[in-house]
Amino acid sequence: MALFTLQDISVAYNKQNILKDFNLEIEKGKLVSLLGPSGCGKTTTLRLIAGFLQANEGKFLFKEKDYTKVPVNKRNFGFVFQNYALFPHLSIFDNIAFGLRLRKNAKSEIEKKVMNVLEIVNLKGFEKRYPQELSGGQKQRVAIARALVIEPDILLFDEPLSNLDANLRVNMRVEIRRIQQELGITTVYVSHDQEECFSISDQVAIMNKGIIEQLSDPATIYKYPETKFVADFIGFKNFIDFDKRTDHDGKIELNKSGYSFVLHKDPQMSNSTGKIGAIRPDDLLIREKDNTGAVQENSLPGRVKVSTYLGRSYQYVVETPIGDFTVNKEMAESYRTGQEIILEIPKNQMVLVD
Amino acid sequence: MKKRYLYLLLLPGVLFLTIFMIIPILMTIGTTFFHEGGGFSIQGYLDFFQDRYFIEILLTTLRVSLFTTIICILLGFPAAYYISKLKQRKKAIMLLLTIFPLLTSPVVRSFSWMVIIGKNGVVNKLLMGMGLIEKPLDILYTPTAIIIGLVHLFLPLIIVTLVGVMENIETDLLKAAESLGASRLAVFSKVIIPLSVPGLVIGSILVFVGSFTAYTTPALLGGKQRVISTFLYQNAITLNEWQVASIVATIMIAVTVLIISIMNGLAKKLNPKG
Amino acid sequence: MQEKNRGLALFTFLVFLFLLGPLLIISVTSFEGGNILKFPPEEFSFRWYENIFNVDMFLVAFKTSILVSLGGNLLALLLGVPAAYALSRFDFKGKSVINAFFVSPILIPGIVLGFAFLRYIVGTYQLPIYAALFVGHTVIMLPFIIRVISSSLSNFDFSIEEAAESLGASKLGTFFTVVLPNIKSGILAAVMIAFLESFNNVDISVYMTGPGVSTFPIQMLTYVENYFDPTISAISVLLMFITAFFMFIVERLMGLSYFTKR
Question: Is C157 in contact with A103 (Cβ distance < 8 A)?
Answer without folding.
Answer: no
